[in-house]
Specification:
With 121 residues, this protein is α/β, with parallel strands linked by helices. It has 5 helices and 3 strands, in the order αβααβαβα. The chain has a 3-stranded parallel β-sheet. β2, α4 and β3 form a beta-alpha-beta unit. The chain is globular.
C-alpha cells in the first residue's frame, strides 16, 4: 500500500516500532521532540513494522500514542504485527488505558481502508 501511495506521489515513511520509539526517546532527551513529531506526522502514509515483537514500557507506550494521536486525521498509518489483533493489549501492558486503544485502531480501519482503496484504484 505504501508503494502504491508513493507511485501516486504521496509521501510515505517506513520504520520499525523499535526504531520509532528509540528516535522518540532520543528526541525527547535532546529536546527535539516537536521536530521528531513533525517528521512522523508529515507523510501521508506511515508504516510501522514489527508491532508486537516486544512489550512497550509506559514511556514508549506514551510516545506511541502521542504519534498516533498527532497523525489522526492527517494521514494513514499502517501497522504490521505478528500478533493477532485480539492480543494487541499485551503490547501496551504498561499503559494504563491499553484496553481501549486497540478498539480505537479498529474503529479507524474503515477510514484508512477508504484512503488505501482510493490510491490503489
Amino acid at each position: 500500500m505504501a508503494y502504491k501511495a508513493v507511485q501516486h506521489r504521496y509521501k510515505a515513511k517506513f520504520t520499525t516500532i523499535s526504531e520509532l520509539l528509540h528516535n522518540a526517546t532520543k528526541a525527547k532527551k535532546e529536546r527535539k521532540y516537536d521536530a521528531f513529531l513533525k517528521s512522523v506526522t508529515n507523510p501521508s502514509v506511515l508504516v510501522i513494522d514489527e508491532i508486537g515483537y516486544f512489550n512497550m514500557n509506559k514511556e514508549e507506550a506514551n510516545h506511541f500514542f502521542q504519534i498516533i494521536s498527532k497523525r489522526y486525521e492527517r494521514g494513514s498509518t499502517i501497522l504490521t504485527s505478528n500478533l493477532v489483533f485480539s492480543k494487541w493489549t499485551q503490547i501496551f501492558a504498561a499503559y494504563d488505558g491499553a484496553s481501549g486503544h486497540p478498539t480505537r485502531f479498529k474503529s479507524d480501519t474503515k477510514k484508512e481502508n477508504i484512503f488505501c482503496n482510493a490510491i490503489l484504484a
